[in-house]
Amino acid sequence: MPAPSTSPALPGAVCVLGLGLIGGSLLRALAGTAPVFGWNRSEATVEAARANGHDVSADLAATVRRAADTDAVIVLATPVTTLSGLVAAVAEHAPGNLLTDVVSVKEAVRRIVTAQHPAARFVGGHPMAGTSHSGWSATDPELFRGAMWMVSTGDGTDAADWLRVASIALATGATVVPAADDAHDRAVAAISHLPHLMAAATAVVGAGESGLALRLAAGSFRDGTRVAGTAPALQRAMLEANDAALLNVLSEAIDRLTDVRDDLRDRGSVEILVGDGHRARLAYEAIASGPLQPISGVTVGDHGWQEELRRQAHAGRVWLG
Amino acid sequence: MPAPSTSPALPGAVCVLGLGLIGGSLLRALAGTAPVFGWNRSEATVEAARANGHDVSADLAATVRRAADTDAVIVLATPVTTLSGLVAAVAEHAPGNLLTDVVSVKEAVRRIVTAQHPAARFVGGHPMAGTSHSGWSATDPELFRGAMWMVSTGDGTDAADWLRVASIALATGATVVPAADDAHDRAVAAISHLPHLMAAATAVVGAGESGLALRLAAGSFRDGTRVAGTAPALQRAMLEANDAALLNVLSEAIDRLTDVRDDLRDRGSVEILVGDGHRARLAYEAIASGPLQPISGVTVGDHGWQEELRRQAHAGRVWLG
After folding, report:
1. Considering only CA atoms, which of B1, B34, B21 is closest in space to residue B169?
2. E strands of B55-169, at which residues?
3. Per-residue pLDDT for A140 more than 60?
4. Is residue B3 scored above 90 in pLDDT?
5. Is the same domain home to B120 and B194?
6. Is residue A9 part of a domain?
7. Cβ of B190 and A197 within 8 Å?
8. Ramachandran quadrant class, A297 (left: phi over 0; alpha: psi -120 to 50; beta: rest)
9. Mutate to test the interface with B, among A191, A192, A197, A248 (most CBs of B within 10 A)
10. B277–A315: do the CB atoms touch at under 8 Å?
11. Is B244 in CB contact (< 8 Å) with chain A?
12. Is residue A8 included in any domain, yes or no?
């Protein structure tokens, strides 16, 4: 095992499987920094990426074998519903390679990896970046700059593997947030998956009212429904893979809305929810616009480093390398 | 009665009562275009507006008497909870003046006007513009450019009065949307007031999860909770004054969220809501980003002009003067 270190190695070679918004942006972000190559199922995407000067292929087995030959970190970057085949190819052609992913749920991905490739060296990840657009044409090498990038940090996570995955995030300009898979899934259910359902419900009610309503719609509707414009298949793959955590926060949201409906009907008041919502938004703004609070006093590889990283990240701190 | 006309007169003198975000921005937008003066309860705001070169006062009675002397249109621009006293002053000092407002509900304002000043020449209005900031320091003379400005259009609305109120909206760069008061209130319940409650509930659930969750929060949470940052007193005044219409759309939203919770729990699927939400968002985008569809074939003042304007506006058309 390599000596513990607080500063990550450069990522070395990176192989990106799937060149949609996230995978394609990652390929472009790393180009010039690391030897990076990729695969995509669609020939049209491969041709578009090649036309932009990138080293990509539509041959999965050949791409994964090349990852084995070059000791590349393999990044799974397709929707969760299509991961199984990719992981099976890795198990067959590059069983010893370090594997990570950029998928928006972590427990479901781990179950797929464990089923297809029980011996995988796997450290999951999730960059908190995206737009409501998708596909190669929406990719942006600057997509991850300033974004939070969760890196799976379990009790059994290997320090050198963790540092290498973290170095990919840092190389794109992102900031690393260590978390356990289940804590991550609960967090993103609350701050990403629930907002998709709230946006959809808001959009449906507005559009069901009248053309007049959509004509009058301004900032609150525009911003509050933006993510409802994301491709439905991508939203479904993301939300349905996190069903248990999403059910919890969805029930909470329904409870809050039911409470305010009762308050409004019985007392003509929205005071409690509006007041709580305002305080919650200010708490978010304080974290989002304040300076990054670095995780401190722990060296990756020390005894118990995983638990200490998670503990500090749970309070909102980040790992800056 | 003046001859019917399709093109509005210039607004003439305008008196703005209340110099917060909307009233203050209106004063600034009209300055240079129309003789405009204003009133605000707070001496600090009056001093700030004077320092910016505006003709404003903290003396309500004197300001309203000046409006009577100059035949100014009087614009009510304070929260609905504080309108009564303003309307009483108008009834006392300028009973013959044309009166309008910029408040986000129309039936509640009409009730207050009728109670305090039964003989008022009143044509309500509502510019669909705002930010989550408030007060004179947040005002912006360009706030209304490109915005939709609803102008109350009832069966008894006087054509010349309607045209003069519409001309104020046009002078700020806004586009006029004619509507009945009740249709307006249902529309804004759906596309403005409901989004405030959805934003608040989303913010509360996110902030209740963990510091990790707020740290990971990205675009969907930021945009989906933005309006929860509006001053709670302003949100309450706006939402509670539209309680009947808001209760209807809130119940609809709760029903949709309850349906998707059942689908997710029983079938692991969010397909229906996500699909409907996506179509609804595209319908909104088509209206919001498409060219303005002008109301055509009707002259303000013709027999039945009010009904014809409302009919076309209900389908999303606008009045361009």
Report:
1. B34
2. 56-57, 73-76, 98-101, 121-122, 125-127, 148-152
3. yes
4. no
5. no
6. no
7. no
8. left
9. A191
10. no
11. no
12. no
